[in-house]
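Any chance you could type out a protein's amino acid sequence plus the matching backbone structure tokens because I've never seen that pairing?

——
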Amino acid sequence: MKHLRIVCLYPNHGEILPKTQACLDRVEREGIDGWCVEVRRARCTMLAQGRNFAVTGWMPMRRNMTLGGYDVLGFVDADIAGWSPRTIARLLSHNLPVVGAAYTTRSRSALCAGYWGEIPGHAPVNRRVPLGSRGIRSVHWIGCGLTMYQRDALQRIEAPWFRHETVSTESGIIELTTDDTGFGIAAGRANVETYIDCGTVVEHIIERPARPNEVSTMAKEMDTATVIQKAQQSMVRGMTDGANMLVQALKQAEERAVNAERALAEREVADSKQRIKDLEQKLAEIKKTPTDKEM
């Protein structure tokens, strides 16, 4: 009997959504005909790192290492629902190296799979598989939402399988790939084909209820926003008061300048009057002095 390992990864600060958890519980309970099914739920810091550990069976990565413990590795994202054991059985029935179910991107504008743009790793929005597509399509990359990877295909790809790469196009675009588009680059180098089954549609949960800690965070953010708003209002009032004070100071300065000019003018007039008076006194003294003829 073939071994199927299904892994659902979720970040340290996140969780597996209830609808996804229900799907995982069901496949554990019902199984899949002809398969030994193992379901693992794993918390991780980085999704790419978690996916690579799942490939190796949580063993350190080594070059040219032999993979074992499963025949097919399936990844399920923590926000993918609307699938059942029959969904996975259908994907497995295609017997393709890499094949995934169809689900929308967060913008709901296309499916989460597509083709390269200028170079491998450049995944423009207009090159994604459009909504309403049918059949099984060969693609350059596919999201890990609900995707099956054959062990033989993974064995042909050089580790690390899921990676973030920096790509630069001739037109100057620089992108950091996601872990699934990074896998697409590695798979292309190894000539491993990737497919999307457009007829197998699952749900990508875009909106979800806020968790208690998020509600608390939102409340704190609202409190913070209120504090910022009050601070801004206080700042405006302070700036207004400051501007009024500057206007008053300017007026006072102008008045002082006028008064200073008036005082200076008054001092000059007083000085002039005093000089005239002094001259008049000297002239009077000169007139009183007897001349030689008088003597």
About this structure: Residues 71 and 151 are 5 Å apart (CA to CA). The longest helix spans residues 212-288.
